[in-house]
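Entry 14. Structure prediction run on the chain below.
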Amino acid sequence: MSVIRSAFSSSRQFLFAACAAIAFAGCSSHPPAPSAAASSDYSYKIGPGDNLNIVVWRNPELSMTVPVRPDGKISAPLIDDLSAMGKDSTALARDIEKELAKFIRDPVVTVIVTSFVGPYSEQIRVVGAAAKPQILAYKQKMTILDVMIAVGGITDFADGNRASILRTSENNKQYGVRLKDLIKNGDVSANVEMKPGDVVIIPQSWF
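Output returned:
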């Protein structure tokens, strides 16, 4: 009988410990964001709202600055509705050369991006208790500190150390970031690199 009581007691202790572990896991925050270096071969992709300076060598009448329309296309002399979204400047220049080759001999084109917005899939979004929540163009080696400077930091009611990064490039996995430690206390160990498409979520404090 005592053996049965002992086994029952052990089972109750194990069950209690397991429940406590599950409860603790449920209350834990998101894992910290990795400080992985940005890819060295990152190439800026053109997006709607960008302005492009198109230079056609020896053909100044065909050279001009054009905006990328909301549908991701551009229009220029001798060119109608050419898709630009998602391409880098070199790839777009080659496409323009192909179009112009129908009208002029051996065109040489250079495309220079003069204002940057980027494709929607690569933009950085900041929501919640930021001073100025907004959408930012991703830049190579951009960090969470760069993002916070751009949005003016966090509000007085923000729970900065419960903020998180939603990483769309990793199937919407969330990582915790310590914005209060970074901004208020100058803890540089809390600074992490961003990736294209990241969403920064800053909750408000309950107190």
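Residues 47 and 118 are 4 Å apart (CA to CA).
Filed with the rest of this week's runs.
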